């Protein structure tokens, strides 16, 4: 199966909707979380990012 532009735009749209939920519902909470995020070491952020990417790839593999 090939990925076409429609799928890519749908995924981008869904991503933006999901990313916007927290700031819309609780802007103060997001502000506090971002303030705490500044204190997290780079290594931990990289590990969290890698974990997130791996989960995303697994989900894509299972769905596609």
Key features?
64 residues, mainly alpha
Structural class, by secondary structure, is: mainly alpha
Largest sheet: none
Radius of gyration: 15 Å
Number of helices: 3
Beta-strand percentage range: under 5%
| Record field, number of beta strands | 0
Number of domains: 1
Task: Please tell me what the overall shape is.
Answer: flat
Low-confidence stretches: none
The helix content is over 70%
Describe the structure.
This protein has one domain. The chain has three helices and no strands. It is 84% helix and 0% strand. The protein is an all-alpha fold and 64 residues long. Helix 1 crosses helix 2.
Tell me briefly what this model is.
The protein has 64 residues and is mainly α. The protein has helices spanning 5-25, 27-37, 42-63.
Blueprint (SSEs and pairs):
Blueprint: H1 5-25, H2 27-37, H3 42-63
Helix pairs in contact: 1-2
